[in-house]
């Protein structure tokens, strides 16, 4: 009985630790959407469509980055292609133009 309680407790802790990044990711998405709305930028979904048109694959991560010297905002997508290679796609958050597609080497 005692062994099964310890096993159940351990399994619960592992499950919670695996789900925590998903909760943070959801919070990040809401924060990105709020900032983009406040600044009058294109929506996250519009930017995602542009990024995937430039580099087909699965979106692994997204950030909203302020360019240096106040020169605007970019959606920064990490995309994994069909061969498992990681790519970074920058989409101008004001115009929707794809600014850069580059391979992630590290």
UniProtKB/TrEMBL annotation:
Keywords: Signal
Gene3D superfamilies in UniProt: 3.10.450.40
Domain PepSY, residue spans: 42-101
Highest taxon of source: Bacteria
Any Pfam family hit: PepSY
Signal sequence, start to end: 1-25
Signal is among the record's keywords: yes
Keyword Signal: yes
Protein name as catalogued: Peptidase M4
Species per Swiss-Prot/TrEMBL record: Methylotenera oryzisoli
